[in-house]
Amino acid sequence: MAAEGDRLNASGVAPQGAGEPECNIRARARLAIAILCGFFLLLALRLVHLQVIRHGRLSEIAAQQQLIRRELSARRGNIYDRDGSILATSLRRWSVYADPGAVTDARATAGKLAQALHLKYQDVLADLSRQGRFAWIKRQASDVDADKVRRLRLAGVYLRTENNRSYPLCRAACQVVGFTDVDGRGLSGIELELDRILRAIPGREEVACDAARRPVRRAGDEPSQEPVDGYDVYLTIDSYVQSVAHQELTKAVEKHRPECAWAVVMDVRTGAILAMVSWPDFDPNGASHGSAQAQKIRPITDAYEFGSVMKPLTAAAALEEGLVTPDTKVDCHSGEWHIGKRVLHDVHPYGILTVSDIIAKSSNIGIAQVGLMVGVEKLHKRLSDFGLGAPTRIMLPGEIGGIMRPLPCWNQHSVISVSFGQELAATPLTVTCAFGTLANGGVLMRPRVIQKVVRSGNGDLVWEAGEPKPVRRVVSEKTASDVLAMMRRVVVEGTGKRADLKEYAVAGKTGTAGLTAPNRKGYVPGLYLSSFLGIAPVENPRIVVLVSLKAPSKNGYYGGTAAAPPCGEIIKRTLAYLKVPPSAPTQVATRSQQ
After folding, report:
1. Over 85-130, what HEC string results?
2. What's CA 130's distance to the chain center, in Å?
3. What pTM value is reported for the model?
4. Any domain includes 579
5. In what order do the strands lie in the sheet with 215-218?
6. Are residues 180 and 246 in the same domain?
7. Are 406 and 524 within one domain?
8. pLDDT (tens digit per residue) in 544-590
9. DSSP structural state of residue 541
10. What's the Rg (C-alpha) of the chain?
11. Model pLDDT for residues 420-467, shown as the tens digit of each residue
């Protein structure tokens, strides 16, 4: 009775749940199992959805989060002078970039970066606040600044190497060699003309990163794309001669203060350009590359009336046609000649002059009569054969052909004007090549500035200019020699005395040409193009040099005053550098006595 009573409470009622039917317990268990099974079923379906249905997209997202695709820099090809001295090369520089999504504190990070890299705080903050996973902070920073950033250890801020272009000759070769932008694309000069040859092809690789997107290891054994360096280019430019031309032209600019100036040095035997200098210039290593005017390669982009410099070409045409000899006499009408309604004047009054005298004394009246002897058709043809009015096709950007009107547009007055260098505009390079023809025994050579292209690293030859390329024979050796003798007299006894040298016998021609008005109607009073063209040594010509100053404003403006001295210095220093033996003293003395 006691045991039985223990199962009753004080009121005689059994406790709740006591004696609950076993079927209820089983029902609850089945329900719990069903819920668990449903949960696992949903989980399985979710896994199937993620791993099967959305596998591709999720794998792509994972790769974006776990892998960094970065560029492997390649080196842009070098530019060398003819002897292998570097004119342009690429140096390794650190660039700073950021992953805005990985930057933990944009304001603090921007402040530290701005101070370390000498940037504006607001600019850096704007870069760190932009959408996306990449932002440049500073391209091609100095090693010192890069070390500062490295020591800061800022989250989301990284460094990578890039190539920075360097130009050892600085201003001396700035226009011809040119420059590139920060991404290594050529913008002027050889850098632009041969950009596809010099340009490097960057590589690609994938790098695994941690949760902070810090690179850990390369994702594969090899880069997905190997970097390819650009080809190396060798020019005909000689670093020493280029520097000499730049130095002497700079001295002339400082003394005479022209609007602009240029100098060209060419090897008469091959047409190779040894130097090509323009002023104003710029520093290609600087952040700013000067104005568009400073970047112009003026010897090929500008065309002018060269005035009296062109007179020997008219004389050459007459000699070649057999119409005159150096000793043919011409009446120069005492400095004033009326032809129709036109009146020609000479600076000094002359009576009877030989053709050789006309060149030595630079008589407009005399050479105009020589031109009239040649006639319209023959003079037009001869000057065209010298290359005037057409581009030389040198491998530099921006070359123009000058201005020589078609034959149907010529008349008797055209012949008179063209005979002494008016009504015909030519580029400095074209003029240099024309006189190089006389120095080369009457054969016109195609000018060239590219010597060869080689594969960087192993130096395998890719392309070579080959043997010098004659364009055509323009005049006979006899005619060329006779004209050079006339030009020698210009230096010894005429307007080019300031280019005379003790070491070498120089032939040359001065020119002081009026500058045409912007509307091409008449000439601007008081403004001149002062030029001197020199060939040396006369007995065996090696180089032809042209120096011009546009609108010199101080210390004289005549070609013999402003342009002859720097031209003479360039000739002397260049021939000495090329180890050309000095002219025989007896020959120089004989020439001087003419």
Report:
1. CEEEEEEEEEEEEECHHHCCCHHHHHHHHHHHHCCCHHHHHHHHHC
2. 36
3. 0.82
4. yes
5. 67-72, 203-209, 215-218
6. no
7. yes
8. 999 999 999 999 999 999 999 999 999 999 999 999 999 876 556 54
9. -
10. 40
11. 999 999 999 999 999 999 999 999 999 999 999 999 888 899 999 989
